[in-house]
Amino acid sequence: MDMGKVNEYDINGHQLSSFTVPGVWGVESLANGNILTCGRGIVREMNEKGDTVWMYSMKDNPDYKIGCSQIAIRRPNGNTVINDWFNQWSGKVDPGNLPLQFIEVNLEKKVVWALSSWVEPANLGPATIIQFLDEKSISEKVSFGTIK
């Protein structure tokens, strides 16, 4: 992360590729051979040459505040889920302005849903990762939190 690079190595430790990605925190290999990177408010899909083929900036939807994006997950439907890591250095959670924990955006950069669940009985706190157990729509499954 501090070097701002994503490197790929083979099983023998030989470097296969290296891309400059400032502030990178999370990386996911995609089924199409590309990689999805996340960090410093930018989610980027890059091809094997390191060219950006899709990018989402937290500034693309200013109504959905994400302060510290770390992980991006590409769903089978092509949408991307992005987390907001709200941590102890971010300050105290303001009950009148609860931060988002996750958003899902489509390839057109439209927000599909946003999750903010800071109240019991389903206080997710500063969640870092989300896991989907099936392909059903999240809106059909969620019975807690606030989905916008």
List the helices and strands and how they pair.
Elements: E1 5-9, E2 15-20, E3 26-29, E4 35-39, E5 42-46, E6 52-57, E7 72-74, E8 80-83, E9 102-105, E10 111-116, H1 138-141, E11 146-147
Antiparallel strand pairs: 1-2, 3-4, 4-5, 5-6, 7-8, 8-9, 9-10, 10-11
Task: Report on the architecture of this protein.
This protein is mostly beta strands. It has one helix at residues 138-141; strands spanning 5-9, 15-20, 26-29, 35-39, 42-46, 52-57, 72-74, 80-83, 102-105, 111-116, 146-147. Helices cover 3% and strands 34% of the residues. The mean pLDDT is 86.
- The H/E string reads EEEEEEEEEEHE
Largest sheet: 5 strands, antiparallel
| End-to-end CA span | 31 Å
What's the quaternary structure here? single chain
Count of runs of 4 or more consecutive helical residues = 1
* Class from secondary-structure proportions: mainly beta
Q: What is the strand tally?
A: 11
Q: Rounded to an integer, what's the Rg over CA atoms? A: 16 Å
**Shape summary:** globular
Strand order of the largest sheet: 7-8-9-10-11
Fraction of residues in β-strands: 25-35%
Helical content (DSSP H or I, runs of 4+): under 10%
Low-confidence stretches: none
Mean pLDDT: 86
